[in-house]
Amino acid sequence: MMSKALLKSTGIVSAMTSLSRVTGFIRDMVYAQMFGAGAGTDAFFVAFRIPNFLRRLFAEGAFSQAFVPVFSEYQTQHSPQELKELVDQVAGTLGAILLLISAIGVVAAPILILLFAPGFTTDATKYDLTVEMLRITFPYLLFISLTAFAGGVLNSCGKFAIPAITPVLLNLTMIAAAVWLAPQMERPVVGLAWGVFIAGIIQLSFQIPFLRQVKLLPRPRWGWASQGVQQILKLMVPALFGSSVAQVNLLIDTLVASFLVSGSVSWLYYSDRLVEFPLGIFGVAIRDRILPKLSRQHANAEAGGFSQTLDWALRWALLIGVPATIALILLSGPMLSALFQYGEFDARDVAMSTRSLMAFALGLTAFMLIKVLAPGFYARKDTRSPVKYGLIAMGANTALVLTLVWPLAHAGLALATSLAAYLNAGLLFYNLRQRGIYQARSGWPKFLLQLLLANGVMGAVIGFGVGDLDSWLQASAKQRLWHLSGLILAGGASYLLAVLAVGIRPRHLLLRQD
């Protein structure tokens, strides 16, 4: 059945993404132990965040949202030869543009640091170090954007596992660089930047045999004037902003944090990483699975099926997002202590990161809802509506940042991002409903009540066993890990049992046919 296939493919992506996130955690644990949270890590995280931001904005954001609907249209309405020509032209055009952008980024690194982390200019050593590392990490944008292009092709061809597992290669390479390369360098933290560069090459190379397998390994050629490329570019221009509002808001956080005490950028980074774990496993998995499906349904004028797919995605987003939000808020300090309180990452770093993690965690459900609501627009080739609502959310975020940074410091930046995300999600949902694109299926009031009860049970179980942060800070590493594992298992089991007890069954969450 189509519904079971959808669940199966989403499960595969989630499993592969879980492996990626686990290796990502190991990477961050290595970073925390070896480098802690200070001027050096602040410099690296800014140098890594700038190309990573552009990657999410350009490759995984705007490009993916524009490319997949056009690719799906060519799959269903054009010949295999025309589809291959589209892939060749997109690869050549995208590669040439990215090569130029990467060259400009390397040359203009000092200016980029002035723009994205102006607070670093007060410390010449920190500023120079950041510029040096940005020149190493910026070409990562070229490699990872082409990797995202390959992932879009493979996802649309039903090969979901390969793009989902590719980030594991990034994490393993960066771990290797931290452990073996960094200690050999005059300034060890620079080894992390070289790890990013090498990882980009490895990730792109990994895609080649699988593209050949689906007979879509591109022979890049310039295709700016072709109909398919122009269609993608037309969709990309507004999507450049609309699909990545959360990333822009995080960049604003980084900019303001550069003026705060040393360590602020690192505290925000580690907090964001923990929020990205469930978001990456579930939110991104659902998004990547429904976008090709929604694109095909729109191309085939299946309005009922389109709405049904969105309904299915929204239920799953809430079923996973709400308990993840509650658990992260309750376990913020314990998680940071158990995962990162080693070596150079001390109790103060845990306490400061806890504040920003609680604030970021508050917005997790909104981040997940945006992941499943935005494809409802992009699949219809409507990239303008998300832009409009993204601008509103960004304006709100900026105002909130300037208001909350004074009393809450770096935690205020995280809280502003979360509140702006709820505004963005609400506007997207309202527009889909108002235009009749999404029509809720029956049973939502009952589902929300069931969700409330199940989360109440889980929250009580975790809250009863978590204790105070001081006890975690004073415990041994082994005790912290065992206690955290026990709480996560108890919370997860209680939630699952509560979900079943209130009457939610797996069959209720299948994508039924009208």
Task: Please explain how this structure is put together.
The protein is globular and about 65 Å long. It starts with a helix and ends in a 13-residue tail after the last helix. It has a domain of 224 residues. 55% of the residues are buried. With 514 residues, the protein is mainly alpha-helical. Helix 2 runs parallel beside helix 6. The model has no long low-confidence stretch (mean pLDDT 88).
Order of helices and strands: HHHHHHHHHHHHHHHHHHHHH
Average pLDDT level: 88
Output the structural class: mainly alpha
Low-confidence stretches: none
Helix share, percent:
over 70%
Number of strands: 0
Quick description:
The protein is 82% helix and 0% strand. The protein has 21 helices and no strands.
Feature tags:
514 residues; globular
Which secondary structure elements does this structure contain, and how are they paired or packed?
Blueprint lengths: L1 H34 L3 H39 L2 H28 L1 H8 L7 H14 L2 H17 L4 H21 L8 H24 L13 H16 L2 H13 L6 H36 L3 H28 L1 H9 L6 H16 L1 H10 L1 H4 L5 H25 L1 H25 L9 H23 L2 H6 L2 H25 L13
Helix pairs in contact: 1-7, 1-11, 2-5, 2-6, 2-9, 2-10, 2-11, 3-6, 4-5, 5-8, 6-7, 6-8, 7-8, 9-17, 10-17, 10-18, 11-12, 11-14, 11-15, 12-14, 12-15, 12-19, 13-14, 13-21, 14-18, 15-18, 17-18, 19-21
